[in-house]
């Protein structure tokens, strides 16, 4: 330690010594200096030169921290997926509570989006059903390339979702009645309608005709898939023709529209049901609001494409909360087909 540093340290210690003595003796607390001398031990302000051993024991040279710490990565992994922010009210909700309410916000009744398999599980009795046509996949008839090749996009979607395309078809019981259900998956290329979606629904219609089952299609889609061009547009006519056969056979078809249902899906099978019902707050339409405003050059009312607005203007038959969907479908089928024997 240098002589200047030692002198500065001595001055600080001496100043502290004098300040304590002044406080204890002259501050009115203790008037007798003899009491001060008894309270202050002789060596309490003794100045000692730091040795080499004490310099080595400085706090910044500790090899291990005195308190065990958790890395940011470990902390993130432990808490990841436990909470979710509601897009409706902005509240933070425990994921387990959402699972118990069917992915519906318990505070504002906002309906979170469901994947196709989750939708099937929520509709069928005891969550039991049988899959059909899961091996169908697109052949990329146009060899389409946008930001990346269509084949690479399909391959990435299959890896991330575990499904071959944007639809799942299944059969099971709803309140004891055998029903064919098709559900679109929004996470697979925006739930867009391509050749596989059209063929899967067409085959479900054929099973309905064969076994005299009602049909339910749950839509969640951005419309026709542009990567398949006219092939995707032809699915609109293909499915519509199949639904006409279903109508002629006297079998009911109920269309459930969820958030969002737009484009060519809205323009075809999503609006051809004997009953068209929507979930609360679902966005339903053909074109987006900005395109419509620019076309008609008028300001549109807020929420004009939401299910609550549409049911008031006759575009939908009913808005049914997710918790009541199974009961509503069962009552509708009892009306169309009669009670279950």
Count of DSSP H/I helices: 13
- Tertiary shape: globular
* CATH topology-level name of the largest domain: 2-enoyl-CoA Hydratase, Chain A, domain 1
- What is the name of the CATH class of the largest domain? Alpha Beta
Helix content: 40-55%
CATH architecture label name of the largest domain:
Alpha-Beta Complex
Describe this structure in words.
The protein is of the alpha/beta class and about 350 residues long. The mean pLDDT is about 85. The protein starts with a helix and ends with a helix. It has helices at about 5-25, 35-40, 50-55, 70-80, 95-100, 115-125, 150-160, 195-210, 230-250, 265, 290-295, 305-310, 325-335, and strands at about 85, 90-95, 130, 165-175, 175-185, 215-220, 255-260, 275-280, 320. It folds into three domains: about 5-45; about 80-110, no CATH class; about 115-335, 2-enoyl-CoA Hydratase, Chain A, domain 1 (Alpha-Beta Complex), CATH 3.90.226.10. Strands 3-4-5-6-7-8-9 form a seven-stranded mixed sheet, sandwiched between helices. It has a two-stranded antiparallel ribbon with strand order 1-2.
Topology (SSEs and partners):
Blueprint: H1 3-26, H2 33-39, H3 52-56, H4 72-79, E1 83-85, E2 92-94, H5 95-100, H6 116-123, E3 130-132, H7 150-161, E4 167-174, E5 177-184, H8 195-211, E6 215-221, H9 230-248, E7 253-261, H10 263-266, E8 275-278, H11 289-296, H12 307-312, E9 318-319, H13 325-337
Helix pairs in contact: 8-9
